[in-house]
Amino acid sequence: MKMGILGAGNIAGKMAETIHEMPQVISWAVASRNPERAKAFAEEHGFMHAYGSYEELVCDPEVDLIYIATPHSHHYEHMKLCIAHGKNVLTEKSFTQNAAQAKEVLAMAEERGVLATEAIWTRYMPMRKTLDEVLASGIIGTPHSLYATLSYPLQHVQRMTDPALAGGALLDLGVYPLNFASMVFGDEIKEVKASAVLTERGVDAVDNITLIYKDGKTATLHSDMRAACNREGAIYGDKGYILVQNINNCEGIRVYDTEHHLIAEYETPKQITGYEYEVEACMRALKKNEKECPEMPHAETIYIMELMDNIRAQIGVVYPNER
């Protein structure tokens, strides 16, 4: 498979590093609006072509899949450009700014008959299946509540602080606890309660979210772009509890009984970076001529975007181009 990357920032570099180690993927082309940056990126990561515009990339007939690595604020525009030219897309989370954009893009992809999927890597990783199996085993009995947190000190990063780039903790960090809750407890939510601390520029620095499910389960979620945290996920049942070390890229799962004794432990398989799993999922889908990846179906992407729209409405975060 010949892969292109749209954007040449840090996250693009991580994907480039990943596919360089995947023998079944050819690092075909990278595009940046800065030709010199594209050239330097291509040389550093072994890409065969460097384009000084996104239009050149989408017009390259050899490209099988384009990974979109631009800020959230630009995903909608860049996916539409790719899809209009018949290109399959793997788009970094969060998929778009809001659910309306996600619905429009996915409808366009369906109409054009191309693959479009969200690169929320935790959905594709092997440890997601391991966690499912641990829960299904009944080792902690009936799970009743969960907690998940993801925070990094990122106040110095422009895309996090700039409202015009759809900045704030929610779309960049909070999306992970939300996906963790969704993977564990599903989407039958009765009530969403959210509070936040906003910056002077009007984006959310901190988000505290409580989800109450129709069956009585609860999820307590937290993200903060001002501080570091242990990145932990915990699932509490009547016979014990599960601790997931690092919900952003699982580093291990440990199970404890009600007396807090360690009763089971699961280690993470060796990986390149963790990004390889979403690329492999795209390859499987393309081989089967499928237009979405079962690991992250379109309906789930839209649902998470709707959930974040709901949260933003509660905390009062509106991006400039939504006004």
Description:
By secondary structure, this protein is α/β, with parallel strands linked by helices. The strands form 2 sheets. Strands 8-9-10-7-11-12-13-14 form an 8-stranded mixed beta sheet, covered by helices on one side. It is globular and about 60 Å long. The termini are far apart. The model has no long low-confidence stretch (mean pLDDT 97).
Largest beta sheet: what is the strand line-up?
Answer: 8-9-10-7-11-12-13-14
Biggest sheet overview:
8 strands, mixed
Which percent bin holds the helix content? 25-40%
List low-pLDDT spans.
none
Counting DSSP E segments of at least 2 residues, the number of strands comes to: 14
Order of H and E elements: EHEHEHEHEHEHEHHEEEEEEEHH
Beta-strand fraction estimate: 25-35%
Quaternary: single chain
Count of individual helical segments = 10
Helices and strands: which structural class?
alpha/beta
- As a whole number of angstroms, the C-alpha radius of gyration is 20 Å
Distance between the termini: 41 Å
Average pLDDT, to the nearest integer? Answer: 97
Any idea what the shape is?
globular
